[in-house]
What does this fold into?
Amino acid sequence: MSLFRSALSTVSAISRPYSAVASTAVHKLPNLSYDYAALEPAISGQIMETHHKKHHQTYVTNLNNALEQYAEAERKNDVAQMIRLQPMLKFNGGGHLNHSIFWTNLAPKNQGGGSPPIGALKTAIEKDFGSFDNLKQQLSAQSIAVQGSGWGWLGYNKNAKRLEIITKPNQDPLVEAVPLLGIDVWEHAYYYLYGPARAEYLKQIWSVVNWKNVGERYEAAQK
Ligand code: MN3
It folds into this structure.
């Protein structure tokens, strides 16, 4: 494998003499663990397929391009170029990170989608939000209120040791807290099915939230 890799890097280095391919990890579109249509009727198969194959793939492609250019700028010690590339890294790197979490935060009903939180996560939700219903109501309301494109998040604040709801614009990744559950409120996530009714999307999405995955992320965040 390493021989194969270094042979590939050599070929790339020859064909693109200024790129630092060998030192740049290549990001890939993750597979989904369910079919595109499996989240219906909450999210249509058409939305899922376009969202995953087109939108997420574009973030991955552009992230890899940005990282390659960044490695080249770093190699040349071109600080201005490194700074110039940062918005591209933030947007596409954020898009890749956010969607990679989002797909795992969802599950069809027959794989546990919509089953309420249990264990340590359930306890933490009740401590920090009063009840599971309150959490859903607050996360919905704040996600609906995001102006333009962005995300609503349930995150774990490691310093305060508590769950928090945080919204982010565009594809800015959640970095102030450990991301547990992200809700994509870009129009591409719901418009084909719900039109401009973001609130209806936020009502229906709870039937396919994978709280088991959110709970695993919560437990990992304790370490
Ligand atoms: Mn999206």
Remarks:
- The first strand starts at residue 150 and ends at 157.
